[in-house]
């Protein structure tokens, strides 16, 4: 069951990335938030949402994401 949520979360993360690219920031934020609801430890979604916040000029929220415990200590993102 966890794998299914992870795959669904990945779909929402991709939708968020697409929305950010096309400057649909509100929708992109909804998609990233839902992806992170499904998998709060998804470092890629956290980093991408942080980038979205920068694009939205919400720098404090961007820093909060990057300083979050989930990205700092539980990252499963491969570089």
Can you tell me about this structure?
The protein has 79 residues and is an all-alpha fold. Helix content is 76%, strand content 0%. It is built from 5 helices and no strands. α1 runs parallel beside α3 and α2 packs antiparallel against α3. The mean pLDDT is 84.
How is this fold's topology laid out?
Blueprint: H1 2-21, H2 25-38, H3 43-55, H4 59-66, H5 69-73
From the N-terminal CA to the C-terminal CA, the straight-line distance is: 26 Å
Q: Give the strand content.
A: under 5%
The strand count comes to: 0
Low-confidence stretches are none
Look at the helices and sheets and give the structural class: mainly alpha
Major sheet size, sense and barrel closure: none
Order of helices and strands: HHHHH
User: What overall geometry do the principal axes of the alpha carbons give?
Assistant: flat
Residues in helices, as a percent range: over 70%
Features:
79 residues; 5 helices
Structure summary:
By secondary structure, the chain is mainly α. Helix content is 76%, strand content 0%.
């Amino acid at each position: 069951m966890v794998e299914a949520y992870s795959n669904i979360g990945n779909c929402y993360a991709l939708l968020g990335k697409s929305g950010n690219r096309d400057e649909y920031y509100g929708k992109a934020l909804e998609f990233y938030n839902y992806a992170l609801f499904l998998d709060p430890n998804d470092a890629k979604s956290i980093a991408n949402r942080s980038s979205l916040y920068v694009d939205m000029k919400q720098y404090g929220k961007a820093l909060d994401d990057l300083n979050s415990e989930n990205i700092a200590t539980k990252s499963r993102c491969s570089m």
